Amino acid sequence: MITSPAPVLLFTGKGGVGKTSVACATAVKLADAGKRVLLVSTDPASNLDEVLGVDLSGGDPVAVPGAPGLQAQNIDPEEAARRYRERVVGPFRGVLPDAAVASIEEQLSGACTVEIAAFDRFARLLGDPSSSGFDHLIFDTAPTGHTLRLLELPAAWTGFLDANTTGTSCLGPLSGLEAERAAYARALETLRDPERAQVVLVARPDHASLREAARAAGELGALGIRPARLVLNAMPVGLDPQDPVAEALLRQAEDALATLSPELAGAARVEVPLSRVPPLGLAGIRALGSDGTPAALDPSEDDDRGATGDADSSGFGTLDSLVGDLESPGRGVILTMGKGGVGKTTVAAALAEGLARRGHRVHLTTTDPAAHVFDAVTADVPGLRVSRIDPEAETRAYTAEVMAGAGTSLDAAGRALLEEDLRSPCTEEIAVFRAFAMAVAGGEGEIVVIDTAPTGHTLLLMDAAEAYHREVLRKPGSAPEAVLRLLPRLRDPAFARVLLVTLPEATPVHEAARLQADLERAGIHPFAWVVNQCLTPLDLSDAMLRRRRTAEAPYLHEVQALSPHVTLVPFLVPASVP
């Protein structure tokens, strides 16, 4: 899959482009060549287990049966945070008073600690690959926006350590962080050395994922990290141009590649053809990775014979009917959630446009750092307002608000100390959380549609809501009313309606099912499921597309068992509502 690899490979790109499949194919190919390989996922919503067919829930490396020399590991953010907290707090037990230790533990309970802890595990592996006992470390990273933040952390936290003189931070005592300085510096040094580490951008041949890959290339370049290759996954080769869906796929790929950005145009390119089914298990992975092509179609199983196993689309709802179901209150918040790359943004934009066309005041916004929501809106519809929660802008505004609130109550030294504390990367977490709460509160006077970040980060946001809610209840004067009422609003089915967006494939469906269970434990009950990019409602002549349509049936049946309210959105049909 990737020739002449460096000891460390990092695969990154927009959610849903196939990073895990390509990373797994590369890892298996190297292992089959006799190399010792550790494949690690840093994605909070990792699907490495499902693709490899191996239980990785323990958090430690696990040998992959059938692939001698290959081990796989998920960096579980919560487990990483637990280990990190104990490493930081442990030396102070029995030394500081119990109250002081408890205060440090409370400081280390936020989502920011979860992020830095996951990075800590990442950096320890990355900083000295030769000590790991493996020939290659392969990282299947989180969706691009969060991967870039992960890669920026070595410089960001080193700068914070250099500037902070107070001895504490939102991550606890700086004496604990100082011990990590060398490891973080080695990690960044490794990333900048193309002989030791290579970043591989994965994209599909469409404008959205190639735009995201170009943005990633630019931001990585600013960090001194030059991407080594561009993998174009799911290239529509060998399809029947007479099939309307196949023809649309071909035209989309041609248009996207014709406008390739300068950041990507000169990159070494690997093309992986569209597979008839998602690669799952070692057989599927080897078929994808052996020579870059999917397994050949069996002539005895294509065309009409496969159609008998297709799902019946008549029992599912449409986007138009879903808009009708959502509009009745005339207010409230609608949240699209799910795995990266399933089309949450296009679904959110389609629903927002549909509601606005029916005469409602609608605010469409996003918490996703990738923020393609403006591109997803297809028309200028009266009554529709579009925005994004910009982390940098929110952090600036929050910092200014805190400093203004301090007024003259602090002397010059006190203000300097406060400014220093607000330079912590954790300030962004608080600022974005507050902006999210304010967006939800806007549903009191209009319909607010929120396109959320990919699942793992959505759950961290919900966890932050729970923790922050407990904290502000103890100190009610310290938070805006929107924050105080956030969880009650999200738990009110008459006000907040969560839509789980998925694709008719194994990993997106199973991840959305886990998300549904997590939300229900938090007292939030999803309103409906939206299965995006479905071939099932379409008339097809291309053999491969017909095979993919048949493969959707079991996953559509799974979704029907999970929710009585399921909407299908046809493949490649623009997600707009009349």
The dominant shape is globular
Give the fraction of residues assigned to helices: 40-55%
CATH topology of the largest domain: Rossmann fold
- Kindly give the count of domains: 2
Query: What about the largest sheet?
Result: 8 strands, mixed
Descriptive terms for the model:
single chain; 578 residues; 2 domains; alpha/beta; eight-stranded mixed beta sheet; Rossmann fold; 24 helices; seven-stranded parallel beta sheet
Q: Would you mind describing this structure in some detail?
A:
With 578 residues, the chain is α/β, with parallel strands linked by helices. It has two domains: 8-296, P-loop containing nucleotide triphosphate hydrolases (Rossmann fold, 3-Layer(aba) Sandwich), CATH 3.40.50; 313-390 and 440-570, Rossmann fold (3-Layer(aba) Sandwich), CATH 3.40.50.300. It contains 24 helices and 17 strands. Strand 15, helix 23 and strand 16 form a beta-alpha-beta unit. The chain starts with 7 loop residues before the first strand and ends in an 8-residue tail after the last strand.
Short account of what is shown:
This protein is α/β, with parallel strands linked by helices. Helices cover 48% and strands 15% of the residues.
